[in-house]
Amino acid sequence: MRKNSIKNTRINGEVQRELSTIIRNGIKDPRIHMMTSVTAVEVAPDLKTCKAYISVLGNEQEKADTITGLKSAEGYIRRQLAKSINLRNTPLIQFILDESIEYGVTMSKMIDSLNHNHVENQEDDE
Asked: What is the pTM of this model?
């Protein structure tokens, strides 16, 4: 199976949906922040490994705690994934902190402030 095949894309989507459900409803670890989402999943074509990109809306300590909590619950998450998705192999999950959403929000705020300043400067010139 190739990396960008239709089957691989479908498996990525299904694993992402199930991981989101498991993290939101199945884990009771207090280290895992309630504003945690799975932004993307990349399952290897051989179904042995999986990279799960996790976004956490919180400070740096909450992000670190969430990743630590997810890593400690990986066995439980894999078992739940195996029960809900019928795959030949249940992949080993590697949790990766995804800060792209936060970066996008920061850049958007910077652009908005620049636009606001530009409008004020134009009004002052008139």
From this structure: 0.77
